[in-house]
User: Fold this.
Amino acid sequence: MFDVTKPIYSGTEAIGILGSVLKSSKTLSRTQSFYSLLPKTVKLRQGSLQSVLDVCSKTLESLANPSIEVSPSAITDKLLMELDDQVADGLGDIYDSVFSDCETIEKVKKGIRRIIKDVEAVRVSPARKSCRGNKGPTLLVSYPKICTDPKRIIHWNSGVIKWTNWTEIVCNSLYNFFSQSFAVPPGIALDLPNKIIVQILEEKSESIDLETCKEIEKIFSRLKAGFVSRDQDKEIMISERIEGEHLFDFAQSKYPALSQSQKESLFINLAKIAVLDLIFGNLDRFARVEFNAKEEKYALSELEANLGNAMVKWNHGSKQDLQVFSIDNGIDHIDMPLRQQKYITFLQGLFESPDFPETIAQNMVSNFVNALNNQVDDYDGNVHEIKKKLEMFSTEITSIGKAAFQRGIREAIAQLPASISKWDDSEGDHLRDYLRKHSPQVLEIIQKRIQGFASIKTKTQVDG
Ligand SMILES: Nc1ncnc2c1ncn2[C@@H]1O[C@H](COP(=O)(O)OP(=O)(O)OP(=O)(O)O)[C@@H](O)[C@H]1O
Ligand SMILES: [Mg+2]
Assistant:
C-alpha cells in the first residue's frame, strides 16, 4: 500500500502539466481501484457512494462531540470496517494507508475529507480505456489533483496514459519536426530502466531516483492490471489530452457545421499526414500499403483508413482555424532487409509516377469510405442514426476531399525538400541524436527511407 498523502514525484517546471498527472498518479490509482469496486449501473453506484458519504459524515459528527474520548486508531478501524461492510469489500483496504499514521483527530478528519473528495472523483470512471484503439491500453484520465487549494475547489488533472513502445515515442518527435501544419500532442515518456523522464517533443530528459522509479512502476502496473492490455507494449507515455474528437466522431458531430474552406483545410491537412506516413513507412493510417507476396512488392491497397489516429479540435460555429492532430504515430520496421529495400523501391516508383497525387488521393478516399461503412457497426448506438450523421462527410470525401487531398499531397511534396535539408543539417542534429539514443533502429530505417525519397525527382518538383 502506498502513502497516498505524499506526491510520488516532486518534478520540475520542465515536466509541466504532464508532470502533475505523474505526480498525482497515486490519486488516479486509488480512485480507479475505488471505482472498480462499485456497481456498474449508475443508480446502484450512486447508492453506494451515498453510503460512503453517510459513513464519513457519521464519523465526522461523532468526532465533533468533545465528550467522547476514543483513540484515533479505534475511530479509523471502525470507519474502515464500516466501508467494507456497508459499501464494498476491499474499500477499507484502499484507505488503510490514508490513516496509517493518524495520531491525531485532526489527521483522521483530513483522511475522511480525502475519502469525501474521492467520492466526487469516482462518480464516473477516473480512467477510461479508449474505445477506438486496440493497442495500448490507451487510458483517458480525469481525476482530482492533490488539493493545495485552501478553498478546497477541486482542480482536475486530465491526460492520456498509453502503454506503448519507443518507436511510437520517438516517431512523435519525427512527425512534429516534419509537420507543416498539423500538430502532435506534447507528452512525456517514462524510461524507468534508465531512470529518466523524457519530454517527448522537446527531446529533453531529466533523471529520477531509483525509489521513485520503483514506486511509479508499482502504481502504473496496478493501474494497467485493471484493463485488458497487450503485453508487448511496456513503455509508459503520458500525453496532453486534446480537447477534440477523433476523425470518426468529428465526421458525425461537427463536420457538417464547417465552412467550405474549413472542410478543404481539414482534408489538406490529412493528406499532409498521409504523405509523411508513406515516406516514413506508417502503412495503416489513411493511405494503406501492403506487401503483395505473389508479386513480391509493396503496393497501395484499398483497405480501411484508421480514423482514430487523427484528431480534430474545433469549437462549434467558431471562425477559428481548426486544428488537426496526428496521434498514434509509428512506423512499420519491416524486419527483413530485402523487404526494407523493396519498400524504398515502392516509394520511389510511387512518387516518380506523374499521377501520384491522384493515385494517393484515390486510395485515401476508398479507405475513408470503407472505414465509414465498416466501422459503424463497432459503435454503440443506432447504426441507422450514425449513418445518417455521417452522410455529409461520406459524400463530401469524394466531392471535396479528393481534390483537397491532391492539393495537400502536392503542397506537402513541394515543402519536403526544405524539411529534409533541415533534418540533414545542424537543425536536425538534436533530433537525430535523440533518435540514436532511444531507438537507433528507427533512426537507421528513417534515414534510408528519407534518402530513398530524396534521391528521386518527383513530377511536382520537376514541374515546379
Ligand atoms: N492526446 C489525446 N487526447 C485525446 N484523446 C486521445 C489522445 N490520444 C488518444 N486519444 C483517444 O484514444 C484513441 C486511441 O488512441 P491511440 O490511437 O493512440 O491508441 P491505440 O490503442 O494504439 O490505437 P490503435 O489500435 O489505432 O493503434 C484515439 O482514437 C482518441 O480517441
Ligand atoms: Mg490508434
User: Anything to note?
Assistant: The pocket of magnesium ion (ligand 2) is lined by residues 132-133, 308-309, 328 (CB under 6 Å). The longest strand covers residues 156-164. Residues 1-5 have pLDDT under 50 and may be disordered.
